[in-house]
């Protein structure tokens, strides 16, 4: 077989056969690809029918979307018979009811007679001419129908399955997927030749609008992706990108309808390339951002991207063309359909897991809130008891002062009144301070500070109290120990620990203060050798309004350790108490992040 290109498309058969016969060039490829070209392609081949024994043979062009294909076949008496076919002609013009172009050959013609084939079109000119015997043609037809029957059967199953899911689950994502499948089906029915054969045999003009399937697929795919990847809630920036893409497709459709082929073909091909690249990138971006349900979506589009890229390169004649390349869109479509269907199932499983997680978290939050409410009720009762007790004490003092008001000891009366006043003022201010700390949404800014310097300042300020009780402070805090905390509040916490140690130590006792870096944290320990506490009291020490022993305690309000816990925990640290039991002393342990 040899090939001749007519760049202008003006040569007739007689000129090609006689004047330009010497310009034919030998062809050694079984698959011919001329890409998008305005040239007319002429093929010349010789057939020796002397050994056929009268058996029928057929020339079959298996590429079904050639606009014009004309065979010039030799006649026994001389001359040539012209047979015109192509997908621009009604299907009834064909000699055989088949999606491929089939030309019966006259095997009574003598040996080595030349046949000529003229091919032209506005789309890509791909050709796969074959010679078949009658038996071979039947086998080819059965194979062809089997392959495409499986392909369209899979599409039909997916359409019905996802339509039923859409009806039962009431989720629009399945409807968008059905629309995507319908678009793929319409597109492939057209480019496979089945549309002209079965759906619009008398209206071949519709074949020029094969790209309408693309304009069904692309918006359906965009809406499917928006819902499947949950872009509106999880990735609003990508959602705006997809909305812009949809507007672009809507604006492109009237342009596509107005421009003539082959420019409309170029535009639809460009849209396919942009769509595949966009949604491949989108799936990868969403998956990389941690949305695990996108993994099969990514697998679907990356494989499809590779197959379509090879198909486009083949149609542009940039790589060697063969019949497998013509099947790549079908293989890619099946791959995408199967993977996206699996992805929907995977998404259901992912959403189910997410829902179970949210339900478990909600249950845990509810249980925690119930515990907090119960604790608040207990705290309220404790607070009311505390307030009742603390108000009762100064009221009793004031009542005692009133009963002594007529006596001679006026100074003692006023001392009782002033003592009650100070007690009430201290209770109110300390309580307000605790509630302010506990309710604040944002703790003060933390920075590098050195506990040793703070403790040295505290010891200097309490030198008189230590001397009065003959207390000795021992221990060591590393000078290069730096923590990340609010310096003012850390000083207040250390002050609370040191004051409690002074208050509960026996006269002549020892207070131990240590500080060091340990396991990425700073550990500060303030220990006395006073009355200590039982194990059941250690955690209660940090509850508001709790006082060890009798509720009557004139010097404190039961809030100092509660405030210390709030300040330490808001700085990212921990605080707890240690004691071996009553009479063994008490240690306050503070851990803070190192700076």
Describe the structure.
Strand 17 (574-578) and strand 18 form a beta hairpin. Helix 3 (172-191) runs antiparallel to helix 10. This protein has helices spanning 13-18, 134-169, 172-191, 194-199, 212-228, 231-234, 236-258, 263-288, 295-315, 323-403, 410-439, 451-461, 463-468, 487-504, 535-538, 560-570; strands at 2-6, 25-26, 32-36, 40-47, 57-61, 68-74, 80-85, 101-105, 113-120, 124-127, 129-133, 447-449, 472-474, 483-485, 510-518, 521-528, 574-578, 586-593. The chain is α+β, with helices and mostly antiparallel strands and 595 residues long. A six-stranded antiparallel β-sheet has the order 2-1-4-9-6-7, with no helix packed on it. The chain has a five-stranded mixed β-sheet with strand order 13-15-16-18-17. Strands 8-5-11 form a three-stranded antiparallel β-sheet. The two termini are 83 Å apart. It is rod-shaped. It contains 16 helices and 18 strands. It is an enzyme of class 2 (transferase).
Shape: rod-shaped
User: What Rg is obtained from the alpha carbons, in whole angstroms?
Assistant: 45 Å
Major sheet: arrangement of strands: 2-1-4-9-6-7
> What's the helix count?
16
Question: In whole angstroms, how far apart are the ends?
Answer: 83 Å
Average predicted local confidence, pLDDT: 86
């Amino acid at each position: 077989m040899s090939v001749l290109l007519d760049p202008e498309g003006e040569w007739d058969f007689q000129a090609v056969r006689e004047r330009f016969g010497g310009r034919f060039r030998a062809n050694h490829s079984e698959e011919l690809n001329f890409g998008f070209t305005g040239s007319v392609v002429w093929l010349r081949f010789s057939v020796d029918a002397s050994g056929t024994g009268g058996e029928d043979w057929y020339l079959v062009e298996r590429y079904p979307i050639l606009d014009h294909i004309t065979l010039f076949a030799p006649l026994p008496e001389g001359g040539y018979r012209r047979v015109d076919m192509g997908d621009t002609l009604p299907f009834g013009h064909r000699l055989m009811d088949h999606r491929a172009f089939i030309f019966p050959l006259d095997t009574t013609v003598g040996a080595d007679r030349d046949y000529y084939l003229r091919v032209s079109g506005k789309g890509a000119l791909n050709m796969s001419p074959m010679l078949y015997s009658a038996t071979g043609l039947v086998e080819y037809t059965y194979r062809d129908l089997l392959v495409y029957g499986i392909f369209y059967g899979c599409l039909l199953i997916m359409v019905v399955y996802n339509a039923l899911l859409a009806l039962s689950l009431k989720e629009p994502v399945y409807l968008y997927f059905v629309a995507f499948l319908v678009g793929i089906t319409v597109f492939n029915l057209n480019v496979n030749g089945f549309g002209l054969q079965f759906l619009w045999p008398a209206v071949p003009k519709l074949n020029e609008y094969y790209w309408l399937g693309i304009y069904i697929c692309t918006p359906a795919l965009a809406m499917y992706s928006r819902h499947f990847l949950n872009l509106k809630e999880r990735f609003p920036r990508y959602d705006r990108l997809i909305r812009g893409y949809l507007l672009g497709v809507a604006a492109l459709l009237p342009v596509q309808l107005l421009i003539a082929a082959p420019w409309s073909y170029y535009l639809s091909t460009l849209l396919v390339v942009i769509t595949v690249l966009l949604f491949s990138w989108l799936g990868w971006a969403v998956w990389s951002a941690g949305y695990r349900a996108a993994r099969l979506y990514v697998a679907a589009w990356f494989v499809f991207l590779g197959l379509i890229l090879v198909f486009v390169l083949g149609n542009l004649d940039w790589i060697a063309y063969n019949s497998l390349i013509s099947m790549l869109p079908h293989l890619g479509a099946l791959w995408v359909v199967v993977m996206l269907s699996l992805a929907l199932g995977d998404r259901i499983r992912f959403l189910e897991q997410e829902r179970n997680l949210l339900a478990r978290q909600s249950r845990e939050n509810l249980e925690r809130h119930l515990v907090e409410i119960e604790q608040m009720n207990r705290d309220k009762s404790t607070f009311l008891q505390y307030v009742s007790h603390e108000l009762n004490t100064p009221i009793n003092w004031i009542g005692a002062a009133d009963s002594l008001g007529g006596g001679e000891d006026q100074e003692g009366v006023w001392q009782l009144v002033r003592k009650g006043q100070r007690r009430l003022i201290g209770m109110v201010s300390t309580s307000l301070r605790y509630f302010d700390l506990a309710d604040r949404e944002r703790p003060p800014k933390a920075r590098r500070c050195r506990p040793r310097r703070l403790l040295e300042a505290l010891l200097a300020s309490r030198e008189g109290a230590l001397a009065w009780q003959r207390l000795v402070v021992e221990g060591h805090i590393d000078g290069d120990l730096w923590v990340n905390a609010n310096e003012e509040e850390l000083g207040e916490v250390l002050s609370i620990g040191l004051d409690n140690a002074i208050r509960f130590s026996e006269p002549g006792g020892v207070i131990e203060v240590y500080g060091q870096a340990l396991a990425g944290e700073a550990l500060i320990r303030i220990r006395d050798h006073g009355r200590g506490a039982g194990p059941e009291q250690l955690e209660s020490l940090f509850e508001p309004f709790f006082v060890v022993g009798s509720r009557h305690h004139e010097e404190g309000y039961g809030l100092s350790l509660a405030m210390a816990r709030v300040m330490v925990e808001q700085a990212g640290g921990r605080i707890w108490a240690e004691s071996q039991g009553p009479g063994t002393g008490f240690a306050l342990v503070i851990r803070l992040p190192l700076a």
